[in-house]
Write a structure and sequence with these properties.
The structure is a homodimer of 291-residue chains.
Chain A: H1 33-39, E1 52-62, E2 66-69, E3 72-74, E4 76-85, E5 89-90, H2 100-118, E6 125-134, E7 142-143, E8 146-155, H3 158-179, E9 182-191, E10 194-195, H4 198-212, E11 217-220, H5 231-234, E12 239-247, H6 269-284
Parallel strand pairs in A: 1-12, 2-11
Antiparallel strand pairs in A: 2-12, 3-10, 4-8, 4-9, 5-7, 6-8
Helix pairs in contact in A: 2-3, 4-6
Keywords (chains A, B): Hydrolase
Protein name (chains A, B): Amidohydrolase
GO molecular function (chains A, B): hydrolase activity
Chain lengths: 291, 291
């Protein structure tokens, strides 16, 4: 949302001269679209964008309500892929091999210590190993050459994620040295967190409340560490990301994000669009303070 | 080798009336042939077999020599295959999942404790995990449903292996309970160890020495925990299993067993066959004491 009135003090009371940019977010799941729009298409400039809003259908928020994270709507996302290279051999003489599964499992076992011993207990942090691949099921008497594993890292602060990456490499280097193995690692930091603007937060909750009823819009105190490359906008301009409820009242739980049976409750679209319209109106009318 | 003279005291001095059975060992690599020959074909009966000999080309024994294990030429062999069943979910919310990789790695981490804490330090024991399969490399944000792992168990005593199997199941049950996971396990004991007859041992070494030169046949003090279903014979009659050297003198090391580039030194065949012929002669002539 772009308000030109800063440059044009004589703007009329209908907000004429302000404008709203609608952004289609391409390549979100691979984390690449937003950066392209910012760097290549200069979407935040000419005219300069003053604040940004986004929303996502959210399976843990009740239909008809909108939840807004107090601080982090999404986390900083990283990924790691590791290949431990050992020395293949007969499983009856492990001492003649360098067992890459042993190395990988020892690294795995130390990963929680990165979170518990190397970063502050008040920082958010998740490291999940989501695959581990070594050997084949039908060969039970050969220790394989290679064990691959990897997964995701999440936190709220980029410097915490950088620390995680450094510590994971330290661990790999040290444990491979113990075993005489080698490794390859590919550790990527995909993007920053989506931190909701503390200044805009209550204003947005109230604006949403005007559409939905005040008790229907609420602040979610906990951080959420999913990933969202809307961070490329929210790291540059004050922004608020809303969670639009899609869980029908009569259901205790519905399928989560990325589930093949994800259920979107179409009934919430009219109200959710109205909230955006309201924010657009208020923004253009100078009713939202962003600094 | 079968000596009928026990039943026929009047046998002549040329050993007539004794006989030698040559056994082709089918299905050795899948551990099933010998048992069939014993149970179905009654190979050890009619006439009853008094002692048995076997040999294997051996890449760590020098060509021209024969090594004979003091006790265990091969170990008792078992295999385990485990499937940990967790609850799939998004890797950013591990608390909503039951992570089967975490369970499998914790079981893995405890396996050495079975050897070090649950069986005697004077027992031989090896447990090697040779495969671990969970998730897929390109999916880094989903904790998978299942982690499979398995491998081989080796020891010299069947009761030790039975203990290993029981302890592995205890571990699986306890660790799965901690995580709320379930598991399937398939633990098989394939066969017993090949224990060389202490009575025949020196006699065989000496007989081999008569062919090769006495310094060329020797006793290997350490046990070997490879697998060999010749155990079906050696567990029923006194037996000696020989390791026929195939490592050329000028090489420090040659490819191991089951290597795709395993090298058999054909030059050793004549002498090795002669050793068998000598044992046949001595056995039939009553020159080998088996009890």
């Amino acid at each position: 949302m772009v308000d030109w009135r800063g440059k044009n003090p004589g703007i009329d009371s209908r907000g004429m001269g302000s404008c709203i940019k609608f952004v289609f977010q391409p390549g979100e799941e691979i984390g690449r679209g937003a950066m392209e729009l910012v760097k290549e298409d200069h979407v935040l400039e000419n005219p300069k964008v003053d604040m940004a809003f986004a929303a996502h259908g959210w399976p843990t928020v009740e239909s008809g309500k909108i939840g807004i994270a107090r601080r982090y709507a999404f986390g900083c996302v990283g990924a790691f892929a590791v290949e431990i290279i050992g020395k293949k051999g007969h499983a009856s003489w492990p001492e003649q091999t360098i067992d890459p599964i042993a190395v990988a499992n020892e690294v795995y076992q130390h990963i929680p210590a990165i979170l518990a011993r190397k970063i502050s207990g008040t920082d958010s942090g998740i490291m999940s190993v989501t695959y581990m691949q070594a050997g084949v099921e039908k060969i039970k008497n050969v220790i394989p050459q290679i064990c691959k594993f990897g997964g995701t890292m999440r936190t709220t602060k980029r410097e915490t994620m950088e620390k995680m990456a450094v510590e994971l490499k330290n661990e790999l280097r040290a444990i491979c040295e113990v075993y005489g193995a080698t490794y390859k690692s590919d550790i990527k930091i995909h993007g920053g967190a989506v931190e909701n603007s503390p200044i805009l937060l209550d204003q947005v909750r109230e604006a949403a409340g005007e559409i939905l009823g005040q008790e229907q819009s609420y602040i979610i105190e906990g951080d959420n560490l999913g990933g969202e490359n809307f961070s490329e906008y929210s790291n540059r301009v004050p922004a608020v990301y809303m969670f639009i409820g899609i869980k029908p009242k009569d259901k205790a739980e519905i399928p989560g994000l990325h589930s093949p049976i994800y259920q979107f409750d179409d009934g919430v679209l009219a109200n959710a669009s109205s909230v955006f319209a309201m924010l657009g109106y208020q923004g253009c009318m100078g009713m939202l303070e962003n600094s």
